[in-house]
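Take one protein record:
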Amino acid sequence: MKYLLDTHVLLWWLGGDKRLSDKFKKIIEDKSNIKLVSVVSIWETIIKVQAKKLPIKTSIDNLIKKIGFPILNIDIIHTLELIKLPSIHKDPFDRMLVAQAKSEDCILLTDDENIKKYKISTLSP
């Protein structure tokens, strides 16, 4: 299976956070699964760290090195998919993750109730 990690799922994974469910851990640890991390999640993390809304114990560079999964860049097909999305909410990071998951035919690992309202494949913890 092919999965895209939502930003909070990525941060929970990297930080060994207790909020990461056993279900998500098994999916992420399963080497037969393709796990992708969007550049959007890195961008969002940097913005939140700089705004002091997200404390992290390491540098962004170290965080990126620790990811260990392919990074999904933003492509024109992703941006064009945004046009088709309903206006469920306005978070630009979440909307791009939804567009990427849809375009790339990924299951989005998320605990975000707003994201689950979109017509994409999601998996909850």
Remarks:
- The chain has six helices and five strands.
